[in-house]
Amino acid sequence: MMMKTPWRRKSRSFQLQLQGAIGTIQSPFLFLFTNYCHYSTSTLEDARFLTNNFKSASFTRLDDAIASFNHVIHKHPLPSRVPFNRFLSALVKMKQYHTVISMSKTIELVGISHDVYSLNILINCFCRSHLVDFGFSVFGKMLKFGLEPTTVTFNTFINGLCMESKIDKAVEFFDDMVARGYQPDVYTYNVIVNGMCKFGKTNVAIGLLKGMADRGCEPDVVTYGAIIDALCKDELVGEALELFSQMRNKRISPDVITYTSLIHGVCKLGQKNQALALMNEMVEQDILPNVYTFNVLIDALCKDGMVSEAQNTFNIMIQRGVEPNVVTYTSLIDGLCISDHFKEALALLKEMVGWNISPDVFTFNILIDTLCKKGLVSNAQNIIKIMIQRGVEPDVVNYNSLMDGYCLCKQIDKARKLFDLMVTNEIADIFSYSILINGYCKCKMIDDAKDIFVKMSHKGLVPDVVTYSTLIEGMFQAGRPQTAQELFKNMCSHGQQPNIVTFSIMINGLCSQGNLDEALTLLKKMEESQLKPNLVTYCILINGMCKAGKINDAKELFSSLFENGLQPNVHIYSAIMKGLCREGLIEEAYKIFRDMEKGGCLPNNWCYNIIIQGFLKHEDLGKASELINEMVDKGFSADATTTELVVHLLYLQGYDYNFTFLTIKVRESLDFYRCWLDEMSLEL
């Protein structure tokens, strides 16, 4: 059958490239001579063993295969092409692609003609070695010899093109194959469907699936499995479950891979009960969950804080004879660290090492990061030592965690020393710089922070939104609002889009400086850039308005939260109540205090103290007494300001019974109230 011209002709330069590639892999003469010299004389003398080994292709070691090949290739007469094909196929199964390419050239040189099977083997080796173009050169040779390509030939090329991420060329090749009358088999479809799914063309893959039956080829579990997996990864779990149902209606039995994909999909959506139901269903169908299935479920449970459930799943896994791997243990260790069960996490690390399962860099990352966040930097250093002893090279993430830990513990000199070491070894990244800048800002060493920021640019690293936001906040806290604003402008002019955190920092800084109008202007810019203010932003603005005496604006902004479908948190309630109390609007503040609980936001210690102080300042001692009782009954305590107000009023009222009782309640809620009594020389 005649094929397209591009398949038939290759340039002379391409042929030379092909020869060069084969020569680079290993020249036939050098291949034979080198391996002949390295093989023991005693083994080569056993001619019968070598011949039988060649014919049966039952070797498991490459050296045995090479010895057999070297023996047979020198025999007279030579074997036919068929045993050579069987021999080379066995080597392909061992993934010795370069060896097969070199041996194929040797077989050709000794005069044994190629057939379609030998050329298919050679094409497959080139494709598996990511040398598809050389495979097409062999394809040209196949046509030149008058050999008819088979479906295997086309499948091999489609697979090779997909492996090289040339999905469009693979589809083009597939369409050309069909147009020329070749019938794709289910393997062909599976390769092309899998390639499409991997490159985000799931809809095209679904279209191909629907057209398979019309072309006389029924999809199998692999076809459906590839699409179901892609849909689950795209969080289109509903569509995946629909396809799963369609698959079962066609009496195509799902396998462990299909179920694992679905379990992963429903877990990503937080549907743990459905995941467990799918797990039970597959067991009922006599489809045994494998380590990947258990890993998906354990990881999802750990990420949701359901560590005890994850541990139970782990125990079931062991009981079923499924051996956990490094991913299983790493997920559990992560879950235990998240839930503050660090000792158990370390015990699990020892257990996995005891079972000869080596922790990888991700396992150590979790432990080091957890220790550093808890301020246990010396323990983190010990983990890094263990890591190195076990032959696991620490990466930039490990060092960044350690540096962050030093900054958290105010050990800024150690953080700088580690940073300098990272820079010297050229492993410091943008996060390394941002961490140190943040550390300097927290220690109020703002000039050092700015110096690191400048050095960052000199190293060719572009500061990101986190770096800018950190330094801007540091400048405001250091009382340098002008520098902070200049940094913000610089950030925008350099193409870094401020995020909601950056805007909130800027608005907070401006409000703290009393520049409320500028803060409101920035709020408008924020909204114009399609960023919606969050509760933090609203809290900052309400607090700023209250401090500026613009209580009506604050009330209006507070009301707009409900209109926009937002539920104020305890910080926003505290801010508006404090502002209302400051303006003498105690009844409005009290109404909001009572409304917050109705709206599902429970008042905390801070809220109680704000409203009690409001009533005490207005000498509404009955209401204050009622609220203090309520506060104490709920387990909250009075702060120093509340206590001072009570004592002051008691002093002014001259030991009234009600005030004495009120003071006792405050005393119950605050141990250091005795100090106030001693200072006032009062006795109860």
UniProtKB/TrEMBL annotation:
Q: Where are the PPR repeats?
A: 115-149, 150-184, 185-219, 220-254, 255-289, 290-324, 325-359, 360-394, 395-425, 429-463, 464-498, 499-533, 534-568, 569-603, 604-638
Keyword list, A-Z: Repeat
Query: Could you tell me which InterPro entries the record lists for this protein?
Result: PPR_rpt (IPR002885), TPR-like_helical_dom_sf (IPR011990)
The record's PROSITE patterns line, in alphabetical order, gives:
PPR
Hey, what's the signal peptide range on this chain?
none
Q: What are the transmembrane regions?
A: none
Q: Which Pfam family, just one, is annotated for this protein?
A: PPR_1
Protein origin, superkingdom: Eukaryota
The record, for NCBIfam families, names: PPR
Q: Which family does it belong to?
A: Belongs to the PPR family. P subfamily.
Q: Under what name is this protein listed?
A: Pentacotripeptide-repeat region of PRORP domain-containing protein
Native species: Manihot esculenta (Cassava)
